[in-house]
Amino acid sequence: MSPWTWLLVAGTLEVGWAIGLTYTDGWTRLWPSLATLALLAASMYCLAAAARTLPIGTAYAVWTGIGAAGTAILGMVLLGEPRTAWRLTSLVLILLGVAGLKLAR
């Protein structure tokens, strides 16, 4: 798998564990907590695989960008978080930053 594919998977898994935190209820619910920890471990593994080839600064920034943007989007869609112009503009800026890092390799 290419390092960018590893990174895309890692970012997607980061969104999963970040959203999963909501369902753990402060780590008091067993199955959501175990699923969240498994997603976290898998995300870190994929990030490490991508960082074998990509510069760590680029890999980490793209990973957190995908995670932040994806979590914010799912927060709006699944959890009813606000959809203001500032939030949407900020998400676009995050995604532009991620794309810029990909292009700047």
From TrEMBL:
<feature type="transmembrane region" description="Helical">
    <location>
        <begin position="30"/>
        <end position="48"/>
    </location>
</feature>
<dbReference type="GO" id="GO:0005886">
    <property type="term" value="C:plasma membrane"/>
</dbReference>
<dbReference type="InterPro" id="IPR000390">
    <property type="entry name" value="Small_drug/metabolite_transptr"/>
</dbReference>
<dbReference type="InterPro" id="IPR045324">
    <property type="entry name" value="Small_multidrug_res"/>
</dbReference>
<dbReference type="GO" id="GO:0022857">
    <property type="term" value="F:transmembrane transporter activity"/>
</dbReference>
<keyword id="KW-1003">Cell membrane</keyword>
<comment type="similarity">
    <text>Belongs to the drug/metabolite transporter (DMT) superfamily. Small multidrug resistance (SMR) (TC 2.A.7.1) family. Gdx/SugE subfamily.</text>
</comment>
<protein>
    <recommendedName>
        <fullName>Guanidinium exporter</fullName>
    </recommendedName>
</protein>
<dbReference type="GO" id="GO:1990961">
    <property type="term" value="P:xenobiotic detoxification by transmembrane export across the plasma membrane"/>
</dbReference>
<keyword id="KW-0812">Transmembrane</keyword>
<feature type="transmembrane region" description="Helical">
    <location>
        <begin position="85"/>
        <end position="104"/>
    </location>
</feature>
<feature type="transmembrane region" description="Helical">
    <location>
        <begin position="60"/>
        <end position="79"/>
    </location>
</feature>
<dbReference type="Pfam" id="PF00893">
    <property type="entry name" value="Multi_Drug_Res"/>
</dbReference>
<keyword id="KW-1133">Transmembrane helix</keyword>
<keyword id="KW-0472">Membrane</keyword>
<dbReference type="InterPro" id="IPR037185">
    <property type="entry name" value="EmrE-like"/>
</dbReference>
<keyword id="KW-0813">Transport</keyword>
